[in-house]
């Protein structure tokens, strides 16, 4: 028989209690209506329209989960401090920086990466290639994702709107002038496609 | 990043209880763009044992007009504040400030409460692996006084210790100019009194207190507000100096004015002298110039930041003229 005193840990907040009854009354008092506690670190994500379930550590960023663990290596990490935007992903419709988000806090979210944008045959990819909006190419996935998020909410962006939407993305090769050209070309292509579809 | 415990709080009470239990050993995470950077660089002597996520608390993100005031939820994203038509028209300074904070992606992550509760950006304080054990880390001295202080306070150090790190928030001066109140889990504080310089602390919030709402009274008739920011680049950068002003005109003359500079002092700096200078007068270029001069009359810059005095003076002038629509 162990003489060690046993403690009961609250699954919701981690408080230690001496007795099971103490734990019961604590849960009733502090966490009423919370339902059964979820398994620690278990999250569900919809990534590029496919549903995934992961078991994550608290210190994993969304970038680490998707790039290193899931193996979608399209998005890139450069600064790891939220300054360069090369790790941009679209989460619930908004372009955000996956290096500054904890994976454990993304439960239930919908994520779109550059792979998803390429897979759906988005005209942005072609436009970026045609206009050579890259040199070394490391920042390009971030730019493409940010541009896609812009085109999702604004089908016909002006030059200023494009510059503003991409103003968080850094490119050390200074390909900046090519990006508005590429995004505009993609927007025009999308418009033409839509018209063609409506015509049929 | 080293590992830590992670808790999702599902109500304000739960968050407060968790914070009470962990005290200084835990940190609250909302947008995460500040705290995660601090943890990745291990800038503090103590690494947080636990993170308490408050994004899981329902009903913390809203913008609504109610009872003669604007109420903003603490977790409202900066992007939503910048784009809100009511804030853009009636509380222009706040919309402009939120819209000039960081980059578009960060504005999709960062929250209004996080922006006013953020930590300082002093490069000695933020140096990796706690390299400089400065006053703000309960260390011995401020390294900026004799070091590179080009982005430090021009209005002197903190009273309690002599730390010269400036408060980096863009929305804080706008909230001060608009006379906002910060509602926390236990009290209501005027924005001006919300900031405090203490080791590893920038606000008066206690270890078990979180911001639960921001209230801005409706500006009186004839009011206009504006926000201007001077930074190295248009996007991403923290301010070198920023300024927000709200001016109320009656019969063409100034009947009330609130002007606040930030990134020039350890806390947002209300330019009372500039406010007095414009009181009861008709705004024109010369008066705005005079007010700008008055705003920096108490400045005592360090070795490398004398240029900030000129920037602050000009921003106050332009901000007053912007309120007048010139």
List the helices and strands and how they pair.
The complex is a heterodimer of chains A (200) and B (326).
Chain A: E1 8-9, E2 16-17, H1 20-30, E3 42-47, E4 50-55, H2 62-69, E5 88-91, E6 94-97, E7 109-112, H3 114-119, H4 123-130, H5 140-153, H6 159-165, H7 178-199
Parallel strand pairs in A: 3-7
Antiparallel strand pairs in A: 1-2, 3-4, 5-6, 5-7
Helix pairs in contact in A: 4-7
Chain B: E1 5-8, H1 12-22, E2 26-29, H2 35-41, E3 50-53, E4 63-66, E5 69-72, H3 78-83, H4 85-90, H5 92-100, H6 104-107, H7 112-117, H8 171-177, E6 181-184, E7 188-190, E8 195-198, E9 201-203, E10 211-217, E11 223-230, E12 241-250, E13 253-262, E14 269-270, H9 272-278, H10 285-295, H11 307-323
Helix pairs in contact in B: 5-8, 9-10, 10-11
Structural category of chain B is alpha+beta
Q: Which assembly state applies to the chains in this document? A: heterodimer
Assign the CATH superfamily of chain A: Beta-grasp domain
DSSP strand content of chain B: 15-25%
Major sheet summary line of chain B: 5 strands, antiparallel
Strand order of the largest sheet of chain B: 4-5-10-6-7
> Considering DSSP H and I runs of 4 or more, what fraction of the residues of chain B is helical?
25-40%
Number of strands of chain B: 14
Q: What's the mean pLDDT score of chain A?
A: 92
Radius of gyration of chain A: 23 Å
Shape of chain B: globular
Largest beta sheet of chain A: what is the strand line-up? 4-3-7-5-6
Q: Which CATH class of chain A is shown?
A: Alpha Beta
């Amino acid at each position: 028989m162990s003489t060690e005193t046993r403690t009961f840990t609250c699954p919701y907040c981690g408080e230690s209690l001496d007795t099971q009854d103490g734990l019961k009354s604590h849960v009733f008092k502090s966490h009423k209506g919370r339902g059964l506690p979820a398994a620690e670190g278990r999250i569900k994500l919809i990534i590029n329209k496919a549903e995934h379930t992961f078991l994550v550590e608290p210190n994993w960023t969304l970038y680490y989960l998707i790039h290193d663990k899931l193996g979608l290596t399209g998005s890139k990490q450069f600064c790891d401090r939220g300054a360069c935007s090369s790790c941009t992903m679209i989460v619930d419709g908004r372009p955000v920086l996956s290096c500054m988000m904890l994976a454990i806090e993304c439960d239930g979210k919908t994520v779109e990466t550059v792979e998803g944008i390429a897979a759906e045959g988005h005209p942005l990819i072609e436009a970026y290639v045609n206009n050579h909006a890259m040199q070394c190419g490391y920042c390009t996935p971030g730019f493409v994702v940010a541009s896609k998020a812009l085109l999702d909410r604004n089908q016909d962006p002006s030059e200023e709107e494009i510059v503003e939407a991409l103003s968080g993305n850094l490119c050390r090769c200074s390909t900046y002038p090519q990006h508005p050209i590429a995004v505009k070309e993609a927007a025009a292509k999308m418009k033409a496609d839509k018209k063609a579809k409506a015509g049929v | 990043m080293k590992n830590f415990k992670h808790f999702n709080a599902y109500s304000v009470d739960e968050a407060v209880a968790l914070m009470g239990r962990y005290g200084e050993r835990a940190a609250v995470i909302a947008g995460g763009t500040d705290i995660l950077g601090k943890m990745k660089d291990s800038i503090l002597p103590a690494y947080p044992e636990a993170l308490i996520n408050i994004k899981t608390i329902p009903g913390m993100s809203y913008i609504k007009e109610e009872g003669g005031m604007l109420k903003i939820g603490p977790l409202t994203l900066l992007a939503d504040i910048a784009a809100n038509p009511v804030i853009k028209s009636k509380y222009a300074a706040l919309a402009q400030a939120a819209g000039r904070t960081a980059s578009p992606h960060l504005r999709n992550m960062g929250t209004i409460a996080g922006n006013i509760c953020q930590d300082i950006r002093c490069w000695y304080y933020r140096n990796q692996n706690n390299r400089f054990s400065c006053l703000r880390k309960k260390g011995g001295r401020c390294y900026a006084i004799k070091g590179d202080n080009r982005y430090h306070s021009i209005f002197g150090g903190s009273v309690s210790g002599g730390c010269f790190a400036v408060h980096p928030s863009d929305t804080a001066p706008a909230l001060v100019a608009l006379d906002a109140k910060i509602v926390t889990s236990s009290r209501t504080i005027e924005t001006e009194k919300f900031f405090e310089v203490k080791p590893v602390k920038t606000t008066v919030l206690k270890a078990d207190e979180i911001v639960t709402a921001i209230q801005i009274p409706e500006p009186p008739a004839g009011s206009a507000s504006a926000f201007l920011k001077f930074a190295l680049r248009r996007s991403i950068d923290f301010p070198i100096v920023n300024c927000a002003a709200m001016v109320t005109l009656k019969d063409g003359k100034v009947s009330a004015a609130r002007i606040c500079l930030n990134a020039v002092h350890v806390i947002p700096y209300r330019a009372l002298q500039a406010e007095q200078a414009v009181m009861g007068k008709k705004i024109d270029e010369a008066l705005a110039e005079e007010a700008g001069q008055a705003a920096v009359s108490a400045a005592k810059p360090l070795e490398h930041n004398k240029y900030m005095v000129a920037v602050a003076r000009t921003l106050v002038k332009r901000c007053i003229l912007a309120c007048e629509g010139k």
